[in-house]
Every structure is written in structure tokens, then in C-alpha cells.
Amino acid sequence: MMHFGSDKDLLSRLAYSLKDDEARPIAFLTGAGLSSPSVPGVAEILSQLRGVFPAEEQIELDSEVSRHLDFGEKYRAAFQFLADRRPSETSQRLIELITLFAYDKQGENKSSANLSKLEDDIAAWRLPSGQAALGRILTGLRPELRGPIMTTNFDPLTEIAVRRAGGSATTYVHVDDSSFLANHRVQSGVSVVHLHGNWRNSSVSNTLQELTVDRPTLTAALRVILQQHTLVVLGYGGWNDVFTRSLLAAISENRAEDLDVVWCVYSDRDKLEKSSDGAELLAKFGTAPASIKFYAGIDANIVLPQLEKRLASVLRYTDSPRKRAGGGALPGWSEISRDTLAEFRVRATSAAALKFYDGRLPSWSDAVSPFIPIREVSITIANKILEQEQSGLASLSLLTGPSGEGKSTIALQAAAQLISQDDADGNQLFKVLQLTSDYFGALEQITGLDAGLRYVLLVDEAHRFYNDIRVLVERINAVARTGLHLVIVSGDIDWQACGGANFAWQREISSKVYAIQGVDHVDASSMVAAWERMGPEALGHLATIPTTGERIEALLDFSFGEDVAGRGTLLGALLMTRYDRPGLRQHLRQLLDKLKVRHISSRHDFTLMDALVSIALPHAYGCVQLDSTVLSSALDISRVELISYVLYPLGEESAITYGSGRIVARHETIASTIVDICLEDGYDLESVVARLVRAAALEIRRGKHSSGLIELAYLSSKITDLPRLSLAGARAAVEVAPDRLSYRTSLSAALRKSAAASEAAEANSKSLRLIYDDSNRNQVRGYFTEWGVAEGILGNFARNSILAAVALQDTPRVGDLQRSSIQRAISCLLFALRRLCETSEVDELIPALASACVVARSLWEGRDKTWLRAAERVVDASGHAFPRADATEQLNVDLVAGLRIAFTMIESPFPVNFPRHEFSFERLIGFLGTSPRF
Which CATH architecture describes the domain 4-38+127-310? Predict the structure, then answer.
């Protein structure tokens, strides 16, 4: 029999946990019981739904609903009936009206268009005592103790309770299978996640299909929350829907010692034993292979106020007057208030600043840190927005530039300065809303924000939301909306790629582009001064430079120099001025030693070091488009777990940056140094390459295509210094798609670079059948060229020349002949013909060699022509004249004749399915006289 604790047991349990100095953060799962009686329960909802229909259809509805005994099943059946017979707007409007039962003001406009303003009127909502107490508890808890509030309710009462207590709350809506663990960088206020939809601004999940469809990402997100939080289930009936199944799966997949679940049940023990569905569902959780503590007879409206009193010694509130906080914020947007910044200032320590200077992803703590100077451009941006507001203009400020230049930090600093501005009445002038989810929101809700207030809308990775931003500014212009100021941040390449750089923003809105590159003398002086105040640990290598002026010049030199793996960036300058190269290596070795004992999760053997190496290795070889799908597959975790267990902690360790669909080390120098350390320590880099390539190749096989996937699938071709790594990657790609000819070609190249040319030639011979697969058509020329190179290394120059010639001939069977594929094949042919002439002394081959020299010299772009001069010397020594480049017929005839001779000299026959060799080079020779530029 299941054991149930009492309400006193529950209070003691939670009060003890939250007063513990090492307490886990607390997350809540709430249901209809928490909003009762302000928001009607299932019985009243069914009554209201019944009123939608005329009498004859009410009879049919009653018949359908009466077939079910459980209230959850009745609810789903009724809404399914509604969905089948009325437009979707009817269901949404019914939820709105049901929610408005908790709104006390009479005579207000309660149309759908006015719901945001009603929610903003937080004093008018009737909060149950439990909700009100929960809002005060969440507001008063230390930020590090606050976890998300997940609710199956549609109503906004939890958010209103938090705002009424003086806190801020961000609404997230999770009706699809996207992750609601959207942005770990922003830890402000309380996150309220509506699992079945929200009473406004979103679709709702009510029907059988909506409530039962599988949501694997939800399961993964719950698994993460369970491992990191104490989960309190309160007022939740536990219907047999997808969320309950996902929760059960998440609990079952975790070890008991990793979990802390407190499950509260409203019914007392006697009723639970007599109930059917409820007891059966609880029994499933009770028999899960993990520990859950159950408590019976728990009324949230009694227990939560009592818990608040028990926690009085640990609850902290700001000293400032509790003015209206937050209001009806936009779903997915977090309001950053003065109180929010006050919380972040507590975390703005010198140790946090040192991590920032080492490359940690920026946060609000850095924007208000006394140890991090305010960038001059952030002051310029804030002043410009103030000027535009005084002129009655809406505005857009775009910060763009290369990665590692501090764009996000500048945007946060500018917003923090604007938060400090007062209006004429001494109130905060600007409300700052930061997009902290993947959902930009309905544009009419943004333009419909309170016209009496002024808003700064902060959007990082703006290229992801380019279309939303473009349409938004067009609407702002169309309705002459004022009081809206967008501050958006994007990498320059990303902004160009999405089309943002080509749109005429100034035509729609007062706009200014801030191109961020390097630091000026003022910023450099401020940074050096800050390091000097912090002492030797901050100065690092700069401490060896005697004067402040010289230290500033060193920082400026690195910021705009070439010393740090190509054109310098601010981040590169920070690394190289504070660490010399030996110092950076030592710093990264210490980091790797720390990460190698931190496992990603209890279900995997991979550590954070494994994850960091998986990110650094492709970056070190120029692949900078590793995405979350490939990395999560390579590490055998979900994308949700990747964010929580890998990206966030590595970002906090100043090791990586992520966004724009790309995950890279914070700097190429960091990536290369990590690979060097792994080589020194004998780390298994081959397995890393194989996992990454395999994951990318699998995505391609599933029909996904991007330049990043292609780069990773062919990573072996970029690894030119370590043949064993190149070979591991090439073999992994062939394992995934053995019939893809280009993978076989990459494997051949890796084999011959590993001194296995014979194996490469044999592998190419066995792959010949694949040239007749239409999906490989435009991979055939590269394949023959590579095979020819392998044969040439083996001294089989006749075979080499024939294979190179096949790669250059006109036959459509081997794919289109393009300028981009000519150079390597023509150099391969020229080498083979020269060596054949030198080793066989067959004079009839000389005209073909001479013609090949003319073609090669006309088409070759590279500066190194030593191989070409070697061939021309052989022709010169024979006394044979070179044909003119415009003698196209002669060039073709000589090449064909020479190759026919070469075919009679092949060292061993080709396979029987080798293509016919009726050579013609008219297409190739036709390129002569055209621009060599591709």
C-alpha cells in the first residue's frame, strides 16, 4: 500500500529543504486545484461549454460525455465535441470567458482584443489564498532557489500573484513540442510555463488528439528539471494525458538518488483508496523506479499560506515601494526591472568578472558589474534612444559585427542605462522587455502595448527573427506607433545572410546601425584601469608590462592585429593580453582537468570535457557551423539536455559560445589549443571525429541539407595534418551511407594520406559500380581524379592518365564539367603523362603532353607552377613544339591520340564495368580563352 504523509509532514519537509544552505531550487507543477475557486473547475466549465449549443445538440453532448466516468475524460470528450462542431475560435473564447470569472471589475471591455489590458490590471483579479501566497513565496525566494512553475492551467493567476507581490514573471506557452528551457542566460524573475496553452495569445490544447499526441522534447525537458530541482506537484489531478505520461517517463528514466519529487494530493487517504482512476494513476508513479514522496489531504489554499509563514526567515523582498510590477507582459518576453538589476548586482562579483574577461557568455550581471567598464558605444546608444523618445519617434538600434566583439554586452549595458532613467513624476521611464524564448509573439500584441508607457524591446540573435522584426517596424510605421524602441543584435554574416542588411529600415522607422569591431582608446583605457584595480589576477600577462600606457597599447594592438589566429577580435585581445600563449595553454589544461570529472548526466559516460573537445575539434579545422542536432546526436543526448547539461555550463566556463544555429569555441585559438592538449595527452580524438561525422551524415541521409552539415560530413578533407583523424572521419561517413560516392572518394584520399595508396586504389576499384547510380552523377569526376592520384602514387602512370582523362572528358555519364573541378584533374593528367613519358620513352606521347601543358597553363590559377614547368621541360627536351591555345582541334586530336596509346600501356586491366573510353575534350578545351576566374 502507498504511504501518504500529512500536511504537517509536507510543511516540515519543504521548510527544512528551502532553509538548507545547499538546497536545490524548487519547481512547481500545478493544476486546476491551485486556481480554484476563482477559476471554475471542470464541472462549471462543462456547464459553460454546454451552453454553446442549442437544446437538441446539448442532448447529443450529454450522451457523449456520460459515456465517461472520470472528469478528465469528460472534459476531453466535451471539448472534442466542441472542436468537431464549432470553429477553433469558439474554444479559445470559452477559455477566455471561463478565466474572466476571476476578474472582479464590472463594466470593463472583455473582448478578446482587450485581454492584455485586463491582465495588466493586476489589482482587479481575485486570487485564491494559495495562489497569492505562492506569488509571495516565489518573489521572496533567492533567485538561485526559484525554478520554473509548470501549469496545465490556462489562467494567468500565478503571474498575477507574483506581480502583485512586487516580482516579475515571464509567461511561456508550450503547446507544441518545442523546449520551454529556452534561455538559460536570462535568470530573471519567475518563469511560468503553460503546458496546455494560455488564456490569451495562444492556441489551447483541449481535444483528445491534442492532449495525447507524443511530445518527446517535453519528456526531455521534464527529465532535466527533475534532475536539477525539487519538484512540488500541487493542485494537479493527474489526468491520463501526454503530460502525465511524459512526467512518468521522465521520472522513470532518472535514478532515485537524482530525484526529489513531492507529490501533493487533495483527497484524503480514505477517498484515495476508494477512487478508481486517481488511485490507479498515483499507483503508477508510486511504482516508478524512483523515489516520490506522497502527501494526502493537501489544500493549497491552506498549506501555501502556512508555508509562507514557515519560510519567513528566508524570504527577502526589495526595500523599494512595490509599484505595479510587470503587468501583462508579452509571452516569451522577460521584463527587466530595477529590482531585477538589483538581484543581478549581487552576483556581479570580481570572480564573475574574471570569467567574463575569459570569455563567458554575457549576462545582466556583467551589464551592471562595477568590475566591467561601460563601453562608450552603449552610452551612445542609450543617449540616442532618449533623444528619439523626446522627439516622439519609435526607433531601431542594430548592433552588428563579428563574433567575440562584445555586441550582446553593449546591448545589455545600454538597456541597463535606460532602466535607470526617470520620467517627470519620478517613475521608471522605460520598461525593458527581453525576448527569452523562440516565440516572437503576435505582432499586434506588441503594437498594442500600453501607449502610455515607453518600451525597449531587446532581441539577441536578431537574424532568427528577421521577418518578425521587419513586419513589426512596418506596422509601427503604418499606425504611427510611438514609445517602442528595438535594440537588436546580430552577427554581421548572419544579418547579411537573412536579408536584414538589404532592407530599407530607415524608410519605416528611425534607425541606426552600430558596427562593432575592436575597441577604441577610451574603452581600452577603461578595461586596463579596471584590471589594475582588481589586481594581478585580472591583469594576468599584462602585469609584466610596466606602465598603464603600454598596457593600453598592447590591448589595442591585439584588438586590431593579426596575432590571434587571423584578424583580431575583442575576445581574442582579452585572451592574449591577459594570457600569453603558454599561459592560455595552462589555463585551458586546468579547465579540461576540471571538466573531465563532470559527467553530462547520470545516464551517460560522456563528460563535459568530451563535449568541449567535440565542439573545439571541428572549429580548429575551420568548421564553424556545428549545430545542436549534430552535437546532441554525437553525445547521445536530447537537444534539451544539450542546452542544460552542455551548452549552458560550458558557456559559464568561458569555453564556448552558441547561437545562430552554431556552436563553437569562444575563439579559434582556444579550439586549436584544446586539440593540441588532447594530442599531447593521448585523448581519443578519432572517436570524436567519427561521432561528429556520423551524426552529420545521418542528418544528410534523412534529407536535411545545409553548408554546415556538408562541412562536418566531409570533415576528413579538412584534417590534413593528422591522417588517422581524417581516416576515422572518412570511414564513419561511408558506414552511414556506403553508396554515396563522394564519401568513398574522401575515404580514398584519407587512405593515401595515411600511406595506404594501394588500399585506396583497391577501394576505388570496388566503388566503380556507384558511378552508374544517378544520385552520384555529379560526384563521378572527383572520384576518377582521386582514383588517378592513388594510382599515380603507386607508379601506375598509364592508369593514372586514363582515370584523369575520364574525369575531364565530355561524356555526360560522368556529370557536368565545371571550371571548379578542372584544375585538380588537369594537373593529375599532366603529372601522369609526364611520368609516363619519362618512364616509357614513348615519343608518340609527347604531343599529348604538350597539349596538356597548354591547357593547364591556360586554366591554372595558382601561383605554384613547378609541376607545370617540370612537364614543359620534358616537352622542350624532346624538341616538340607547343600548339597554340586557339588551335582547339589540334589540342583535342593530340590529347585523344596520346590517351589511346596510354590505354595500351595500362599496368593491369580495369574492371569490366569501366566506362567506355572514346575520349573527347572539346568541352574542356572550350574553356580556353575564357576568364580563368570562376
Answer: 3-Layer(aba) Sandwich (3.40)
